[in-house]
Amino acid sequence: xxxxxxxxxxxxxxxxxxxxxxxxxxxxxxxxxxxxxxxxxxxxxxxxxxxxxxxxxxxxxxxxxxxxxxxxxxxxxxxxxxxxxxxxxxxxxxxxxxxxxxxxxxxxxxxxxxxxxxxxxxxxxxxxxxxxxxxxxxxxxxxxxxxxxxxxxxxxxxxxxxxxxxxxxxxxxxxxxxxxxxxxxxxxxxxxxxxxxxxxxxxxxxxxxxxxxxxxxxxxxxxxxxxxxxxxxxxxxxxxxxxxxxxxxxxxxxxxxxxxxxxxxxxxxxxxxxxxxxxxxxxxxxxxxxxxxxxxxxxxxxxxxxxxxxxxxxxxxxxxxxxxxxxxxxxxxxxxxxxxxxxxxxxxxxxxxxxxxxxxxxxxxxxxxxxxxxxxxxxxxxxxxxxxxxxxxxxxxxxxxxxxxxxxxxxxxxxxxxxxxxxxxxxxxxxxxxxxxxxxxxxxxxxxxxxxxxxxxxxxxxxxxxxxxxxxxxxxxxxxxxxxxxxxxxxxxxxxxxxxxxxxxxxxxxxxxxxxxxxxxxxxxxxxxxxxxxxxxxxxxxxxxxxxxxxxxxxxxxxxxxxxxxxxxxxxxxxxxxxxxxxxxxxxxxxxxxxxxxxxxxxxxxxxxxxxxxxxxxxxxxxxxxxxxxxxxxxxxxxxxxxxxxxxxxxxx
Length: 653
Description:
Layout: H1 3-21, E1 26-32, E2 35-40, H2 43-48, H3 50-60, E3 64-68, H4 76-86, E4 93-99, E5 104-109, H5 113-116, H6 121-130, E6 133-138, H7 145-156, H8 158-172, E7 183-189, E8 198-203, E9 207-210, H9 239-245, E10 254-256, H10 262-265, H11 268-273, E11 280-282, H12 284-303, H13 312-320, E12 322-324, E13 330-334, E14 337-343, E15 351-357, E16 362-366, E17 390-394, H14 407-423, E18 427-431, H15 437-450, E19 459-462, H16 465-474, H17 481-488, E20 500-503, H18 506-514, E21 519-523, H19 532-540, E22 547-550, H20 559-564, E23 569-574, E24 577-582, E25 586-589, H21 599-607, E26 615-619, H22 623-636, E27 640-642, E28 649-651
Parallel strand pairs: 2-3, 5-6, 9-10, 10-11, 11-12, 16-17, 17-26, 18-21, 18-22, 19-20, 19-21, 22-25, 26-27
Antiparallel strand pairs: 1-2, 4-5, 7-8, 7-28, 8-9, 13-14, 14-15, 15-16, 23-24
Helix pairs in contact: 1-3, 12-16
């Protein structure tokens, strides 16, 4: 962008401030992604006159943020001391942390209302004394190591992030190319298949990648590009830039992540390995869960001698450039695209993506993974939008006979199986994804044991599940109302039940395996591609008293799928040796716990969608499921519907 355009933008802002606010002290005006940030030494003036801020934003037709000039911020330690002196002890402050990047201080307390005060008066008094902008959140009932580490990392990287956000702002405010307007969608992965989800949205001015995942269990061995989306096609990969600058993704404007599961997030760090330096947009809980899953993915791969084509430093580079937005919040992500996230009901923080293209030109919805049913954890996915000409919908269970029981039926089935196994003295092994299904099964088991519908037994939690559960409790606003209210009341929080025992050492694992008493074991990974579940399976598989219960999707080619299909002799790696395991334990699949919508729900999502889309595009399903669901929309319900293959391009405008 030329200096003249920059100067013009800054001049517009300064002129608007002078016209509306007079000679108020403005020390700096800068770009911060989609915001224009105005720094002032007269922060009290803007705090006491919020209508002035609205008038300035309306005048310049841009989102603005008014922040105190850093020079007037009270020292962090002194600010913390004043907060502790001002806030009554019964508020129960558990943590205070500062974010220099945004001049905010977050106060974590057991009774937030005592800090906020009537109509925010007490909070405003704190702000007047320390100048930092205070916000208050409730103390999570479970502490999360990953959230604390992310918070500290972002604080340590605040200067780099500030410069990064400034560069994003520059790109957002670059001039739009003149000429014919068009909008295309390129399928780069996850079309007529499950895994390596990736969709490229393209206009004359922008290129935005939605998801960049990996095929379950495929990125290993010697080939670094196996199981990877088609990132090397010319629409996204610049060979010339790769050869000259080692930056083949230099023309990629932004990445959007629908949710944290690896088939959607697993290859995003690869972009940063090849020097992509743009933003990735996601919800706050998706950020935390994604970092957790990616770090564990690398750790597990290294321990098993398999290969992932990036390292920990590339995850950190991704985190530095992550921009979080809440459900319902709209932000510019390119000069001609605006993004809004909505609840997808799949896992914590999962999003239906709504992208508005141009100045009223076109709107597209990408569902990501979708659950159009209220569950124990989440509300049903949103399907109401201001506009939506096109929708890309997942089809995991879009096939002819892909109908699932309700959540209540699934819970009853689980209870019956568990009771049968406990009564015969066996152990129940439940492989689960750390995020989503594990928390839902925990809630169900806690209720049944608390109400004596299942005998009192220990429920052992192994793998990443405990940390993922702590992240759930840190974001109660993303959970269903009933669960949220229970979490706020410690004596009713299902996740804090004494029946749950955390396992984090091999010694504890060995003790559980050889304990003759019945028990329930929830452990990762959900498709049995690795993790603690392999150890339990090795020791428990040959005893017919035990049971293995599948509650989630098992992809083709995974160990879980082979067992689910009835193989009775399984080869696995145990203590570095390839061994055969005879499968005598009972194998049970309980449908209905999936975070994906079944065929009926997928159809209901589209047919009740408002407004009705002009075109329905299916993806994220086996080829037969994608095509059959598309044919259903076309022939039975009258929609224009297609099921593209990978590498097909669809022009929508």
